[in-house]
Fold this protein.
Amino acid sequence: MEQIGKQLKEARLEKGIELEAVEQATKIRRKYLEAIEAGDFEVIPGEVFLKGFLTQYAKYLGLDAEQIKAEYKELKDLKVAEEEESAESTADKESKKELNPFLEDLLNWFKNSKVKIIVTVLVIALIISLGAVLLKSDIFLNLTESFRLANQQQSQEQLLDDEDEDLETEELEAEIELEEEATEEEATEEEDIAIVDEDSIQEEENDLSTDETEEVQEQEEEESEEVEEQELEDEEELVEEDEEELESEIEEEVEENSAVEELEVEEEIEPDENEISQIVNAEDETTEIYELNDEADFVLEIIDRAWIRVMIDGEQVLADILAAGERRSWAVEETVEVLSSNAAGLKVIMEDEVLGPFGEQGEVVQKEFIVETE
């Protein structure tokens, strides 16, 4: 985008034109002109206005407006493609970042645990080997039997002690349970009364709090909606005003340019009454006579814009401004008189014979053509 803005700015500087002059001539605000030259097209309010500004600015500087628009479209498509590619590349990098920490942690754990695993395996193997040796020896059997007998005797003594303790414990537990039951009944009644009172109070407070909260939320939502609607309306009004102002400026500029062009053309091409009078009065000095073959149409071909008057056999058949490329023809019996404000802007064709142009650009000329009769 900066390339287009740079091209327009260089063209303006080469012509020695200030931004104030461009603003006055094109009716485009200075801030938009500066944004265009800086390549900051996002400042322009809308794609339609942006293309209109580019076209108008390029024409004012004498550049090819269609080429500028084509370059803008090409750069815009390229920017969209780059943004899509960048988004895809970013997604790939993020996925790799998520996977890399897991792989690094796994590798570090393996490195740090490698020695521990080897030591653990060796210890387990040693224990298994010692166990196998002891199982096959008499020492292990004797030790096992001694431990079994000692454990059995100790278990019997422990059973007797446990039975005595259990009896005492049961009696104490029975007394304690009776006291606890009585105490629990009293506490339960008091708690039930307190709970009922607290529940009632809490329900009343909850009802009041819920109602107040709902009212506050509804009020805040209504105020928020009103503020958002007002902001949207204000933004829409501003956008509409800007659009109307831009459209009005563009229309006024087009009308002014059209009017100026028409006035310039009329001033440059159409001769005034004094010039026509002088040419007619000096007919003997300025008129050249050409002889034409009989029974041939008189064809007038315009090659450059000019004011033309044509007299056929003494009768005026044309007095108007003709544009390049126009072609007029008449049947002639005797004479044709042609008066033109641009001697280089017309040709005369009779059958295969072509006459003209008859002078320099902007030169006023009068010619007379006579038809030969056999």
Remarks:
- The mean pLDDT is 77.
